[in-house]
Amino acid sequence: MSTHEPPADRDGSPAPTGAEPLSRSAVVSPEGPEGAGGPGDVEGGAGVDVVEGGEKAEGGEKAEGGGEEAGEAEEEPGRSRSWDLLMLAGICLLTLLLVNAFVARPYAVPSGSMEDTLRPGDRIIANQLAYAFGGHPQRGDVVVFDGTGSFLRESEQPPGIGDELRSVGRDLGLVPAADTVFVKRVIGVGGDRVTSTGPGRPLTVNGVPLDETSYLAPGDDPSSVAFDVVVPAGELWVMGDHRSASRDSRDHLGEPGGGFVPEDKVIGRADWVVYPFSRWTSLDRPAAFTTLAGTGGHGDQR
């Protein structure tokens, strides 16, 4: 609000005429020699005075409401700026919510199952557009997914209104991620045969040994248990980088879903570690997975 005092009399009385002293709010005609229309010549009040903030008034009378209109005019720019700032803040908030819901979503890593690639407390960004336009998860990708139905049993209770609201809140980033969300590395895609013969031996994908030394936690075996699986179409075989501390597809072989994660449960590809700043890095697909190209499976048809 302007601090300028509107040019009106304090008691609201009309501007004086004749020989009475001039009101502080009156603006007289241009200066001239005294006695010739100068500041002292106010007899008769026949001149035309210009009143600041009001209309032209004859006889030295001040137009009513001129001061109030001037005050309102001075306040308009301030109100306009406040409205512009409010609109800008609203647009920024809406943009942030839309980006969080459909483009990129932050997550906190809760455990050490992906060390040393990811550490507890790391903040990662899941790129939700990575597979949005006909793309599919690839071998070597680090993915964030909902483990309901694969790593966790489906709830037998139908979702209520509270569950729906929480789900919307999570999509918009207003509610923390549920404890059904996991982050793992894709080892096999639909059609791949993934095999382990136990400790001390590498995993094989379609019969080709996989060199995991670039990301496997130091001292860990590729797998301490033997398994031999063929990944169904549209599903994924996923494992943690810290194999001795990871409950992954191997641990759910005998459960409904067989430990395979449906592609439509993937929220996004973890592309960046953004916090702590000292660990800021991109999560690129390891070069070791290029040796699997042309070995078969649906991964070679994409």
From TrEMBL:
Catalytic activity annotated for this protein? Answer: Cleavage of hydrophobic, N-terminal signal or leader sequences from secreted and periplasmic proteins
Q: Where in the cell is it found?
A: Cell membrane; Membrane
TM segments?
85-104
Q: Give its E.C. classification number.
A: 3.4.21.89
On whether Hydrolase is a keyword of this UniProt record, the answer is yes
- Where is the major localization of this protein? membrane
> Which Gene Ontology terms describe the biological processes this protein takes part in?
signal peptide processing
Record key words, sorted? Hydrolase, Membrane, Protease, Transmembrane, Transmembrane helix
Family that this chain belongs to:
Belongs to the peptidase S26 family.
Please state every residue range assigned to the domain named Peptidase S26: 84-275
This protein is called: Signal peptidase I
Where composition is biased (Acidic residues), the residues are 66-75
Q: What are its GO cellular component terms?
A: plasma membrane
User: Recorded GO terms, molecular function?
Assistant: serine-type endopeptidase activity; signal peptidase activity
Q: What is the lineage of its organism?
A: Bacteria, Bacillati, Actinomycetota, Actinomycetes, Kitasatosporales
